[in-house]
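Exercise: predict the structure of this protein bound to iron/sulfur cluster.
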Amino acid sequence: MTDSVSNSDATAAPAGEKINLLGLPEAKLVAFFETLGEKRFRAAQVLKWIHQLGVDNFDEMTNISKALREKLKSQCEIRAPEVLRQLDSTDGTRKFLIRVTGGSVVETVFIPDGERGTLCVSSQVGCSLDCSFCATGKQGFNRDLSAAEIIAQVWIAAKSFGQLAPNGPRKVTNVVMMGMGEPLMNFDNVVDAMNLMMHDNAYGISKRRVTLSTSGVVPQLDRLREYTDACLAISLHAPNDELRNELVPINKKYPIAMLLDSAKRYIESLPDTHRKITIEYTLIDHVNDRPEHARQLAELLRDVPVKINLIPFNPFNLSNYKRVSNNAMRRFQDILMQEGYITTVRTTRGDDIDAACGQLAGEVNDITKRSQRYKAQFSQAEPVTIVTQ
Ligand code: SF4
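Solution:
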């Protein structure tokens, strides 16, 4: 396993721009320092300054010689994107609206749960995959985030809690690549950022606490084990291809059987044998929440090491789907548990700050043709329900 997709672009800042060290994993930082004729251990020193102490000013790096600091200042920068807004929910959920280069806005959400603090990180501005229940999908695709813009979300959140300081509280304990965008469509930058999350000289988060969630880009999923051993979640949302084609259109290209085979290959490649794939299943009223869907799902996953996370659909503008009833959700969970599956229900958090992914940034990023099209359609649409039996 290598900790970076390529080292060749470590010094590849566009002409006239400085190299942003924030997004370089250790292998690329080592390569960079070697180009300066410096020892490899400089990479570890700089990683710790940036990611453990939150430093963005070379003058504060006191174990680095003044001459090297001057050289770094002339060629490099440590630059996080601007936090446009920070919203704090009464339940402790904290949401960041982050303006990236070019003016687009992405969302990052911190969700506390006892000792655990999970950060939901975005990988793209918008998303090209257009899942029918997803607020981000309605925006269309704008661009991939750089590795610096991805890891900056962890840096910004951790700093906001005073974590990046000597003996700072360890608030961000888990990361899920489950925010805006499909992470596997931005493979190289996501791998670099995830490896920084897990690196001992950066955030040191356990590989069991960093999760990549994909809707099923199978060729990229097949490559993933060469670069990371993080946890895997599959955004499934339907127990058969007919329904999944409606909800997650990439299923037409990579159907469920192909996706589950690929996910199994990934999980079986990991050295520790007890890990399970998390199956994400958004329950939508009268769409995919019937008992027969639960039974089909149980049958489908029979030979796959999984735990199942049920997510009640969170209604948003531009969607006619409705939230699942509590009864239907409990019935769905009961069936899966009777079939022997560990099945949890994600509780809704941060209602007072619109914490569901894509809701606020969508209002800011109202720029793509797709978002305009959905708005036009929605203003004329009749309510829609899909029920497959
Ligand atoms: S659910 Fe994920 S993959 Fe699907 S449109 Fe939304 S962000 Fe993209």
